[in-house]
Amino acid sequence: MASSGQWGILERLSAGEVVIGDGGFVFALEKRGYVKAGPWTPEATVTHPEAVRQLHREFLRAGSNVMQAFTFYASDDKLENRGQTLRITGAQVNEAACDLAREVASEGDALVAGGVSQTPSYLSCKSETEVKAIFKKQLEVFMKKNVDFLIAEYFEHVEEAEWAVQVLKTSGKPVAASLCIGPEGDMHGISPGECAVRLVKAGAQIVGVNCHFDPMTCVKAVKMMKEGVEKAGLKAHYMVQPLAYHTPDCNCQGFIDLPEFPFGLEPRILTRWDMHKYAREAYKAGIRFIGGCCGFEPYHIRAVAEELASERGIIPPGSEKHGMWGSGLEMHTKPWVRARARRDYWEQLMPASGRPKCPSLSTPEGWGVTKGHADLLQHKEATSTQEMKHVLEMQKKVKTSA
Asked: pTM for the full model?
């Protein structure tokens, strides 16, 4: 089914279209040298707009129907948190992000989404009024730039996500809400089904999960959300934007508890063929907004678009340089590589890591702390020597008891 031009996100989803999201800008731009790991803030929209613009274009070419403005963690409390000395405001970041997303979206059949995410203020137990004020400040920019729809994404606690949805809903624009949770639910143990019901009641028309877990785990969590919403007699559309990393060993906090996070995750990356399986499973589950988060590169999104090409009625421009199921290998000079130009070869492949002493699984460093715990109180000052000594002691204690 080809996309319908000027239709908005809800019209597309209501018509049964598959809307393909983009990938993980924070991780992709960190690897390219434009984002600092730790803060994970998106000032590159101001300092290096050409890098952000190019990544948008690559996702568009790969088949993305949504250019999500690079506004992740672009609230002033995050930009000023823990030793940051940026002289760039949240408003500047958000405005530049919207302009870049709109510029590239106009080059194809894509919508622009403005997003808000969890805040240091919530973790520090600031009031509902204070946290909502942060979202309202971001929303003002999104309204000024007239984005097509809004996303509340990457929330570990459904309560904060509800507050975000309530603020975004005042815009009159479509609102999607995406939690970074797995089948175990949010950080206070609220089930995916209940989370989804609360988000729909708060005003979200699209609900789902993003980040923290691998594709199949995220699809499972969204299935649980769908069951909860339907059981409550409510209606919603569903979205999923998972990691591009295998995470079978993760606990409820997801990949940030893995010892490999964030600089040693490459051995866990899903292949393009894994993404075909993910896209099909998401589609079978009734999810129609299908994209990616951390670790997703354009070729991963292209695989999603190719897997669902018959349903969508289109092949992305990026497929011009990619034979379906490796068919381009028929042109290879080596006969044993030409023999791999077939679907069954790649579907049955069990990739090796090439690391003789590499374990198949890790032990997550789950400290069991969340909102309300003293260790999560945020501040503007840089991490002190005393604080670092404390976290190292905690880490040693956790590893000893594991």
From this structure: 0.93
